[in-house]
User: Fold RNA polymerase sigma factor from Ancylomarina euxinus.
Amino acid sequence: MINKSDDDILEMFRDEATKDEAFGLLLKKYQERLYWQIRKIVISHDDTDDVLQNTCVKIWKGLGNFHSQSQLFTWLYRISTNEALSFLKEKQRKHFGSGNGELEELLLASLESDPYFDGDKAQLELQKAIVLLPEKQRLVFNMKYFDEMKYEEISSILQTSVGALKASYHHAVKKIESFLISREV
Assistant:
């Protein structure tokens, strides 16, 4: 683990002499967490790598202007989440044109053909249930259930109220339960 605080890394980044080193430390500290945040949204490992690259470029360009109004971690997650969602919108547009094609179909196909998925049948069914959730519910469920984030953190990342997040999580859990019961997992 990196022994430098976020504030130390930011201070190093603002100094031209240590800017590259600071960015390397930042990536070592957060890259894996950002990878998995993006992966839960776009499903495919290859797509995740592409989105993570774009995310790193945005972080590099914006880090000098970061003024600690939120936690650095929250800011990084917001960028990675927005990049992943933009990627999915573009992917949907490419596959379905300007129509309202089902993004869930693309995500399910990615999940089912993913050579990196090593879960059992129950895990695959859970992932299918999550993919079928509406976007906001899927994001909230993943952050709360898998990342064990507090509602306040999620609220800062998604820029929505805690009450709305609690409702989204509740609805997501009910939909997942219904899906799994219907599949007898």
User: Anything to note?
Assistant: DSSP finds nine helices and no strands in the chain. The domain at 1-115 is CATH 1.10.1740.10 (Rna Polymerase Sigma Factor; Chain: A). The CA atoms of residues 8 and 149 lie 24 Å apart. The first helix runs from residue 6 to 14.
